[in-house]
Amino acid sequence: MTAPTAEANGRAEFAATGRTTFYPVIMTVFCALLLISNVTATKPIELFGLPLDGGAVLFPLSYVLGDVLAEVYGFARAKRAIWVGFALGALASLVFWAVDSLPSQDWAQPNAEAFHLVLGFVPAIVLASLCGYLAGQFLNSWVLVKMKERTGERSLWSRLIGSTVVGELADTFIFCLIATAIGPFIWAEFWKYFLVGYVFKCLVEVVMLPVTYRVIAAMKRHEPEYRVSAT
Fold first, then answer.
1. Which bin fits 74, alpha (ψ -120 to 50), beta or left (φ > 0)?
2. What is the pLDDT of residues 56-92, one digit of tens each?
3. Per CATH, which fold does 12-230 belong to?
4. Where do the structural domains in the chain lie, given as residue ranges?
5. Do 93 and 121 contact (CB within 8 A), yes or no?
């Protein structure tokens, strides 16, 4: 790993450039977490007495991997993963809608009704989820990279927490706003779902910090091209 040096224009980025070993794997898992979370989000749940949707169980981990992508591979590759995840999420929603719209065989009608309840296309929820995801993940990666330009390899904890606080704020607020304005949520419940969801997701990131630290350290050690590069 090349020793980090400051760029003359002040816009140095520590990142694995060129050939990478684990980037395709990290991006694949990142996109899988998004798709799984979008499906599980259809079930309202209570976790420790808190009102949440099922996506809250797994979705915060996508921010952990988003941090790994931005910290190790830089903003350009993090953006690529975010756009791939967005495209796959939109495709999954489109396919669910198409399959749900097709007539079912008579003997499979109970299965079709169950499919509709779980995966039926709800335009407001899909729009809220995709818009929240896109804004939140881009802000998460951008904030982390901008903080890293100032701190270099120091203060990783501040980048991980700071980027999550900003990204999850945008993600949760946009999701709740759209889902309330044109979807099934009601305004009386807006602040409860927003605050509970936001605080819960940020706490998951804090709890996961030791794991995130180890994953990032391992990626930096094993990526042969990890170095400082001009952005």
1. left
2. 788 888 888 999 999 999 899 999 999 999 999 999 8
3. Arp2/3 complex 21 kDa subunit ARPC3 (1.10.1760)
4. 12-230
5. yes
